[in-house]
Design brief:
Largest sheet: 8 strands, mixed
Strand content: 15-25%
Shape: globular
Strand order of the largest sheet: 3-4-6-5-7-10-8-9
InterPro entries: CarboxyPept-like_regulatory, CARBOXYPEPT_ZN_1, CARBOXYPEPT_ZN_2, Peptidase_M14, Peptidase_M14_domain
Organism: Aedes aegypti (Yellowfever mosquito)
GO molecular function, one term: metallocarboxypeptidase activity
Number of helices: 13
CATH superfamily of the largest domain: Zn peptidases
Protein name: Peptidase M14 domain-containing protein
Keywords: Carboxypeptidase, Glycoprotein, Hydrolase, Metal-binding, Protease, Signal, Zinc
Number of domains: 4
CATH topology of the largest domain: Aminopeptidase
Length: 544
C-alpha cells in the first residue's frame, strides 16, 4: 500500500512537471531512439508568436550565434536594393573550423516573394529548434552532426517591409511580392532557354538580391535545397518551363525526375494537409506537381540550381494565405516541422566519395556519370562529390580531362544508407608529383599558330602579362590563337581557357583604322556570372 502511494505521488509530480513544460512551450515527443522512449522538445519560441521586423530578425540571429558560438554562424551574402542585409544562418558542429570532408551542404531559402511570409517564420523557428534540441534529441543531433545546414529566412527583405500582415493575396500592383525595384525575383535568374538578347537583358537589369544568391549558389557545393513560398499547398519540382512553352498541364521532366518526385513526396506525405492534395481549391495528386505542368515560368531559382550547379532544389508552397495572422504561426510550424526535418535527411540519400589522382591529390571538376541519367555532377576543389539517387541499382563512372576514365562501377543504393565510392584516376602523362589540385579541363586541341597580317602602331610598350607563368603551368590545356602585329612586334601569345570545348573561329585581320585590343583570358578565375553564361552556352550546343 505504501509503495502504491509513493508511485501515485511520483506520477502526479511527473504529470505536473509535464504540464508546466508544455505551458512554457515544450513538447513531449515519443522516440524510439531515446532510452526513455520520450523526449521533451524545446519549442519555447512558439510562446508569443509574432512576425519579426528585418531589424529584429538581425538581432535574433545575432543572439543565436552569441549563445551558441560553436554551432551557429550568421553570414551576410549581400544586400538588397535598399541596403538590407541578406542573412544566412549556418548550423553545424565546430562552426569555427572548415567544413569536414564529405559533409554535404543543405539550404532552405524563404521569402523571395516578400508577402509570402510563412516560410520566413518557419526558418526562424527551425534555426531555434535545431539549436535548442541539438543536445537532447538524438535525431536532431545526428542530423546536425552530419550536415552543414544553411537557412536563409528572407531573400527579399525590402518586399517584406512593404507587406501587410493579414493580406492573403498580393495587391494589384504586387507591392510586397516584388523587390524595391518592382522585379519578381523568381523570374530574374538565368534560364536554360535564354537567347543572346534575353541573356543580355538579364545581365543589365539583374537585381542585387538575385546576383547575391547566384554567387552564393555557385560558390558553394550545395547538394539539396528547397525554396519556401505561399499561396498554395503543394511541393513543386523542376522543370518550371518546357521547350514547347505551353501555359500549363504538361510535364517537363528533368533527367533526375525520379529523384525529384521522390523528394517532393517525402515532404508532402509528412505534411497532414499537403498529402491530401486538395487544399486552396486546387487538386494535386499526392500533393506534388511538376512545375511546368502547374504553370510555366522562366527565370526561376529552382531550375537555375539544377541547370547551373550541382544542387537539386524543389519549391514548397505552404499556405493558402500568403501573409496570415501571427496567431496562425504555431499551427503552421506543427504542420511543417516533420516535413522540414525529413526533407533535410534526403541530403544523405545516394552515393558520395572522393576523386583523386594516383598520388591521392584531389581532382576538381571531374564528371561523375550515372549510366542512363543525362545529368552529371562535378567534383569540388577537394575532390568531393555527392550524387543524389533514389534506391535502386546503378552504374557509376568518373571522367576528367588529362586522366584515363575510371571503370564503370555497379552500385546499389539503399534507403537512408549513404554509399561511399572513391575513385582514383591515372593521368595521361603520369606527371602527378607536384602536389597541385587537379583542375578538370576539357579536351582542348592545340591549334596552329595564326599571325595577323596587318601591322598597326601601338603607341605604348606592352609589358608581358603577369599571368603568363601561371598559364604555362597548364601547357597541356591551352592553344595559341595569334600574336601581336605591331611595331616593334613583341611576341605575346593569347591564351584562351574554356570550361568546355568551344567551336573554333579563325581570327580575322584587324582593319588598318582599328586599334588592336588584346587581353589574356583565364577562365579558371572567371566571375560567377561569366561561368553561368558559359555553361548555358554549353547546354545549348548540339553535342551536349
Amino acid at each position: 500500500m505504501v509503495q502504491n502511494g509513493k508511485l501515485s505521488a511520483v506520477l502526479v509530480v511527473i504529470a505536473v512537471s509535464c504540464f508546466v513544460l508544455v505551458a512554457n512551450g515544450f513538447t513531449l515527443q515519443t522516440s524510439e531512439s531515446s532510452p526513455a522512449g520520450a523526449i521533451i522538445e524545446d519549442e519555447s519560441f512558439l510562446q508569443s508568436p509574432r512576425y519579426e521586423t528585418n531589424d529584429e530578425l538581425q538581432d535574433l540571429l545575432a543572439r543565436l550565434q552569441k549563445d551558441n558560438p560553436t554551432l551557429v554562424k550568421v553570414h551576410s551574402i549581400g544586400s538588397s536594393l535598399e541596403n538590407r542585409p541578406l542573412l544566412v544562418v549556418e548550423i553545424r558542429p565546430n562552426i569555427d573550423r572548415p567544413r569536414p570532408l564529405l559533409m554535404p551542404m543543405f539550404k532552405y531559402v524563404a521569402n523571395m516573394h516578400g508577402d509570402e511570409t510563412i516560410g520566413r517564420e518557419l526558418l526562424i523557428y527551425l534555426a531555434q529548434y535545431l539549436v535548442n534540441n541539438y543536445a537532447q534529441d538524438p535525431e536532431i543531433g545526428a542530423l546536425v552532426n552530419s550536415t552543414a545546414i544553411f537557412l536563409m529566412p528572407s531573400m527579399n527583405p525590402d518586399g517584406f517591409h512593404r507587406s501587410k500582415e493579414g493580406s492573403c493575396e498580393s495587391p494589384p500592383n504586387y507591392m510586397g511580392r516584388y523587390n524595391a525595384a518592382g522585379v519578381d525575383l523568381n523570374r530574374d535568374f538565368p534560364d536554360r532557354f535564354d537567347n543572346d538578347r534575353v541573356r543580355h537583358m538579364r545581365r543589365n537589369r539583374q537585381q542585387p538580391e538575385t546576383a547575391a544568391v547566384m554567387s552564393w549558389i555557385l560558390s558553394n557545393p550545395f547538394v539539396l535545397s528547397a525554396n519556401l513560398h505561399g499561396g498554395a499547398v503543394v511541393a513543386s519540382y523542376p522543370y518550371d518551363n518546357s521547350i514547347y512553352h505551353h501555359e500549363c498541364c504538361e510535364d517537363s521532366p528533368t533527367p533526375d525526375n525520379h529523384f525529384f518526385k521522390y523528394a517532393s513526396l517525402v515532404y508532402a506525405q509528412n505534411h497532414p494537409v499537403m498529402k491530401n492534395g486538395n487544399d486552396c481549391n486546387e487538386t494535386f495528386q499526392n500533393g506534388i506537381t511538376n512545375g511546368a505542368n502547374w504553370y510555366e515560368l522562366n527565370g526561376g531559382m529552382q531550375d537555375f540550381n539544377y541547370v547551373f550547379s550541382n544542387c537539386f532544389e524543389i519549391t514548397l508552397e505552404l499556405s493558402c494565405c500568403k501573409y496570415p495572422k501571427a496567431s496562425e504561426l504555431p499551427k503552421e510550424w506543427h504542420k511543417n516541422k516533420r516535413s522540414l526535418i525529413e526533407y533535410m535527411k534526403l541530403t544523405h540519400v545516394g552515393v558520395r566519395g572522393l576523386v583523386t589522382d594516383s598520388n591521392g591529390y584531389p581532382i576538381q571538376d571531374a564528371d561523375v556519370i550515372v549510366d542512363g541519367i543525362k545529368q552529371n555532377i562535378r567534383t569540388t576543389k577537394r575532390g568531393e562529390y555527392w550524387r543524389l539517387l533514389v534506391p535502386g541499382n546503378y552504374k557509376l563512372r568518373v571522367e576528367a580531362v588529362g586522366f584515363y576514365p575510371s571503370q564503370e562501377v555497379p552500385i546499389t543504393i539503399a534507403a537512408e544508407q549513404p554509399l561511399r565510392v572513391n575513385f582514383s584516376l591515372k593521368s595521361y602523362d603520369n606527371d602527378e608529383s607536384d602536389g597541385k589540385v587537379r583542375n578538370r579541363r576539357p579536351t582542348l586541341r592545340r591549334r596552329p599558330q595564326t599571325r595577323l597580317t596587318k601591322t598597326t602602331t601601338i603607341p605604348t610598350t606592352i609589358q608581358p602579362p603577369p599571368q603568363t607563368p601561371y598559364v604555362r603551368e597548364w601547357a597541356p590545356y591551352w592553344y595559341q590563337t595569334g600574336t601581336r602585329a605591331a611595331q616593334p612586334q613583341p611576341y605575346y601569345p593569347q591564351y584562351h581557357f574554356y570550361d568546355r570545348p568551344l567551336y573554333y573561329q579563325q581570327p580575322q585581320p584587324q582593319a588598318q583604322s582599328q586599334q588592336p585590343f588584346y587581353y589574356l583570358q583565364n577562365y579558371h578565375n572567371y566571375y560567377p556570372q561569366q561561368r553561368i553564361y558559359r555553361r548555358l552556352e554549353d547546354n545549348r550546343r548540339p553535342d551536349n
